[in-house]
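Worked example

This section walks through a single chain of length 202. The input is the sequence exactly as stored; nothing has been trimmed or padded.
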Amino acid sequence: MSEMPQLYLITPPAFEPDAFTLQLAGILDALPVACLRLSLAADADTIARAADRVRETSHARDVPLVIERHVALVERIGLDGVHLADTRAIGALRKEMGADPIIGVSAGASRHDGISAGEAGADYIAFGPVGETGLGDGTRAPAELFAWWSEMIELPVVAEGGLDQSLIEALAPCVDFFAIGPEIWSADDPLKALTDLAAPIR
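Given that input, the structure is written out below as tokens.
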């Protein structure tokens, strides 16, 4: 891989749309973000309203927006695709949605799940967490997984979860995208936090 990895931004799990879209606009205007993932834990109506607002902000800046899980909202609201946490549904979903929408998937630390999802039609595979998050069973996606993937598989690979500057620097040669979200939203200045975190790939 010769090109530098790109930034992939994940929204907070809860936010007030007016304040967040203002903050988001500032980040998207200041830094090149390749993709945005709506990761909202709320009821369907709240998610739909938030998705509509976030889409306006991201599409005004030519940043594609994918949504976690809620496949039905992709066409309804005019989103660019969906991000799934389960690799098993990809094949059926690709048939249903057609070739255009982005379908991304998290494959944890499983090379096998990543390959299966790619063969079923996923557009990118996310592995993680790569760092300490305090969530799940503590399993991490090791650097060797990304190194192997970048050498053997053409499908874009995303590193996410518990990222810090040293991990980004170490993984940069074998990753296409770094998905960043939880690492920055609790900071007083998320834009500065993201700028600092992404320094090794800028």
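What to look for: The mean pLDDT is 96.
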